[in-house]
Amino acid sequence: MKFERAISEGLIQSNPAVAVKRYSKPSKRRRALTLDELERLGAVLDDMEATGRVNGRGIDPAAALTLRLLALTGMRKSELLGAHTIARRGPREGLRWADLDLDAGTYELASHGGGSGGKGGAPRSRRA
């Protein structure tokens, strides 16, 4: 039973939670890795590729490259690799060679649906 109804029914005199601050969800922040964190990630990936094992775990070279690209470009996993599930608009392709301009050091993310940016609307270009 809600407190307002309990008050109206005469079960309690006042709302005991009136002084409690409402919980607010933390804002969704985008945080980039620091230079130190990027260096540590690179060192771990280098070690895993060279030895095949770190803490008992190996890594496939393609997986290491994928992690490097995600960390250094800020792309979403689906933007780089594509969506492997069929969404409302069908499967989405990941980054293709045609999306890269190696001379300019940029890549273009394809449009998917309405709106703006990589999630929809006009394609967006980013500097790699």
Largest sheet properties: 3 strands, antiparallel
Number of helices: 4
Shape: elongated
Main structural class: alpha+beta
Low-confidence blocks of residues: 114-119
Helix content: 25-40%
Proportion of residues in β-strands: 15-25%
What would you say this structure looks like, in words?
The protein has 128 residues and is of the alpha+beta class. Among the domains are: 34-74, no CATH class; 91-128, no CATH class. 32% of the residues lie in helices and 16% in strands. The protein is built from four helices and five strands. It has helices at 3-8, 35-51, 61-73, 77-81, and strands at residues 82-87, 90-93, 100-101, 106-109, 124-127. The strands form two sheets. It has a three-stranded antiparallel beta sheet, with no helix packed on it. A hairpin with a 2-residue loop joins strand 1 and strand 2 (90-93). Helix 2 (35-51) packs antiparallel against helix 3 (61-73).
